Amino acid sequence: MNLLYRFLLIALIALCYFGAGQLAFSMSGGVVGGKIVSVAIFLSEGVALAAVLIFGRWMVAGIFIGQLLLALTSGLSMMSSVGVAVVNSVEATIAVTLFNYFGLDRSLSRVRDVIGLLSLIALVLQPFSALLGNLVLLISSTVTLEQFPVTVFAWWFGNVMGQLLLAPFLLLLYANYREVRIWKMLSVIVFFLGLNYFILFVYPISRLSIILSLTLPAVILLAAYTLTVYSQIATLIISLGATYATREGVGAFATGDVLSDFIDLNFYILVHVTLSLIVGSLFAERRTAEMQLMDKNRILREMVNLREQVEAMHRHDMKNPLNAVINGPRLILETEKGLSKSTTKLLVACEKSGYIILDMINRSLDLYRIETGSYKLNPERVDLLAVLEDVINDSPVVRNSASSDQQVTITDARINRSEPIYVCGERLLCYSLFANLIRNAFEAASANNFVSIGLDCVMTSGACTVTIANEGSVPIKIRDRFFDKLVTSGKKDGMGIGTYSARLFTEVQGGKIWADFSDEHRTRVIVSLPTWPCQSVG
After folding, report:
1. Which of 72, 52, 74 is nearest to 63 (CA)?
2. Mapping DSSP to helix (H, G, I), strand (E, B) and coil, where does residue 447 land?
3. pLDDT at 291 over 60
4. What angle, 0 to 180 degrees and rounded to 10, lies between the N-to-C axes of helices 258-335 and 148-176?
5. 395: closest CA among 360, 358, 439?
6. pLDDT of the residue at 11
7. Contact, 505 vs 363, CB < 8 A?
8. What's the burial of 220, exposed, middle or buried (CB within 10 Å: 0-12/13-18/19+)?
9. Which of 510, 519, 518, 517 is nearest to 528 (CA)?
10. What distance in Å separates the CA atoms of residue 466 and residue 529, rounded to the nearest whole number?
11. The model's pTM
12. Would the pLDDT of 489 be above 80?
């Protein structure tokens, strides 16, 4: 920033400071302590605070010049004028120092920034300015000792209101000028000018509560659903309109007691300013959080797509060696003669297992898609008993149990039926579902105990129920979370996925699954699937 530009900006700030001060004194000049102390809105302080926060400490020169001219034209001596100008200049330096120290943002887009600015104004800057400024006036005999408490309060109150009303508006306008739309700004100005004119001059309302009920909701709605700068424009119009009406002796703030009237007026303005800023910052934070959430969701979708692409590559790479596993046994069976029955049976089992693994690879993303609700079920007629027999015959856990004293029993309620009963679902989902549950049952059952599988088709409710029972109980601490993800207990290599995936595979097929812990020495898991043709499980 070149020197000429700085000089012009300093001159502009000095002129604005001086003009705003003259306006405040014209509103309530001579109320307390002569023309230099005003209980009205001292807009000069708002200009000063916004200037140093936007442009930096070097704007203190403009503040000093503006305050010096204002004091001299108000009848103060040169020494008193310089003293007051120095106090207000130091106040501005303190403001920008503390604002930056506490990491506040000029955009006032967070509640933290708004509360921080309000606290800085009311509790630090203006107590400092009011006390030291009035000490200068007391020493120069501009105010008496009896007037001192009143002038300190008037200085503090008027300056606080000036900074609260104008500084946030200028900061918001500077931070959001690219987003401000002229037509919206003009609409706000026209509406609130009309509202002010109606309630202050056409039908003057004398009760503060009624005026607040008319103006405050409109300002809050504006702060909630638009940029906060628009609600600050409305607040500025309301404040200046009420101040002008008070000067003209009309409205709720023209009772005849000038000091009380201006205190009530400032309270009226304070309510609009603070609520507008706080509500605006709350909704601004909400909008920012929503935008951040949208960005995170977009990144997450991109990561999911990348994951699917990588897993698709892995599936493709795994299929090549798997083809040898599938085709090798078939090639041996077709070319080699004189193979024993046991060898033939083993080769057939290898080929079948290879196809099962291939199907599982092709559906490796099914669990994820079910979790996210993007899985599309292709229902088919599934022979449930055949699936259970395949699971038992293919499961290494079940085969290994043959060398121990564990026993598996399958009971089928269809034994006396002349026609098979089918369930509605997908064969591979049913296979994975019962493979997980049966494996869990064998792992949970200790040696010399049994695992039983009962198949019961209830035609009246259109459901086929499978019960898998094993000796041994589930720990009480995890019973309520038995089907949740990553819940396991007592298994060395358990990951807590088996019952969780079983629940998802059941529910996506329109079925239900639950556990029965009523017998303290036995665990029963019940799966109910809809029979063919498809209908929901009751």
Report:
1. 52
2. coil
3. yes
4. 40
5. 439
6. 94
7. no
8. middle
9. 510
10. 8
11. 0.59
12. no
Give the single-character DSSP code of 39: S
**Residues above pLDDT 70, as percent of the chain:** 83
Task: Identify each DSSP E strand in 389-521 by its residue range.
Answer: 407-412, 422-425, 450-458, 463-471, 512-516
For residue 355, what is the enclosing H or E element? helix 341-362
Question: Of 262, 69, 250, 255, whose CA–CA distance to 160 is shortest?
Answer: 262
Answer whether 184's CB lies under 8 Å from 222's CB. Answer: no
Cis-peptide into 533, omega within 30 deg: yes
pLDDT top residue among 206 and 291: 291
Choose among 448, 433, 414, 449: nearest CA to 523: 449
CA-nearest of 390, 398, 529, 394 to 470 is: 398
Tokens matching residue 9: 């900006």
Note the pLDDT tens digit of each residue in 321-341.
777 777 788 788 888 877 888
| CA distance linking residue 107 with residue 348, whole number of Å | 73
Q: Find the range with the poorest average confidence among 88-92, 129-133, 427-431.
A: 427-431
Per the DSSP assignment, residues forming a β-bridge with 417 are none
Give Dmax over CA atoms of the chain in angstroms: 126
Phi, psi of 414 (to 5 degrees): -85, 0
CA 88 to chain centre: 41
Q: Where are the alpha helices (DSSP H) in 177-227?
A: 182-197, 208-225
- For the chain, give the percent of residues with pLDDT over 90: 29
The residues, ordered by sequence, that sit 6+ positions from 239 with a Cβ below 8 Å of its Cβ are: 41, 165, 269, 272, 273
> Do 432 and 522 touch, CB atoms closer than 8 A?
no
What is the tens place of the pLDDT at every residue in 227-247?
A: 899 999 999 999 888 888 887
Q: What is the pLDDT of residue 191?
A: 94
Residue 119: pLDDT above 60? yes
- Cβ atoms within 10 Å of 121's Cβ, excluding its own: 23
What contacts 267, CB < 8 A, 6 or more positions away? none
Three-class secondary structure of residue 401 per DSSP: helix
**Res. 417: pLDDT tops 50:** no
Taken in order 230, 243, 254, 159, the sign of the CA dihedral is positive
Contact 271, 216 (CB under 8 A): yes
pLDDT tens-digit readout, 302-317: 887 777 677 667 666 6
Q: In this predicted structure, what is the pLDDT of residue 374?
A: 79
Residue 396: its pLDDT value, please? 59
Strands across the sheet with 463-471, in order? Answer: 407-412, 450-458, 463-471, 522-530, 512-516
* Amino acid code (one letter) for 494: G
Residue 73, C-beta contacts closer than 8 angstroms, at least 6 positions apart = 22
Residue type, 384: L
